[in-house]
Amino acid sequence: MVLICPRIHFYEINDQTWFPQYLREKVQSCLTLSWTFRVPLLQKASPAQLVASTLYGTLNAQVTSYTYVDFCAGAGGPTPFIEKDLNAQLDSRIPSSPHPTSTNTKGLTPRSPRILAEPTGGVKFVLTDLHPHIPDWTEASKRSENLSFVSEPVDAANAPASLNGKDGKKIFRLYNLAFHHFDDKLGMDILKNTLETADGFGHDLLCHSPPPEIFELQERTISSLITMLGLGILMLLITPFYFWRSPGHLFFTYIIPIIPFVLVFDGIISSLRTRSSEEVQALMKECEASCDSWTVKSGHEQHTWPTGYMTWVIGLKRCS
What we know:
320 residues, alpha/beta
């Protein structure tokens, strides 16, 4: 992976207050579809399935020790689909896609991917956000008993005590296609809060105390920019099949193509804002919280042939 430039914190159109909410929802629906849609021949699995397999293969026997909290859930995004696929894998004890192999480990001993049966049912996922999307979350949670949400605003930089673990479960913090939205100061505040609230959870010799897991479908590479252009073309091809009941979606895709333009523009900006695993580790060191006992695992997985790659970073803490 060759980065084409230093990280540049430009602004995405879909984040701006002046961008109409009506169009924002249309763009968000396309982003969710990009997580869950599998392009025949070009993708072995959807990105959401790849995230589930990454969790399954990386955490191994510890995967059932957590409640997974999406701290930037937006309108729901891929998390309901990740929950469904991860629990399906746990039910079958057979991953739906190969375990990640291109990982960088520091001070960690690889474990067998075999997972022991979980007698208490599936693992739980929780949707939270600074701006809760109650109607969308309510609808999503009706489809799974393992999916719930927090109706009050949740600040990822100051997580409430109620989200620091309960019922014997530790909290696993998810940031799906979200961490690149934070500037360095906010990113450090979020990492600092994670490091400071991690102590005291878990009783294993090696315990994964509330770690942040960061998943990004883009990076600061030429191949990622090409993938963003391909995303716009993909949406032009599949929109009639997925959004045919929405005249507004069709109008702003084909007559006035605002939706594909925003997807491509914001995708390119997202690529330029995305941090490498080394840069995330640098923020951890600069956030004024002790991280001496933390190690980092990271991976780089192809989600779309030949140019699309998912990067992920997870912090792990060794208990004293």
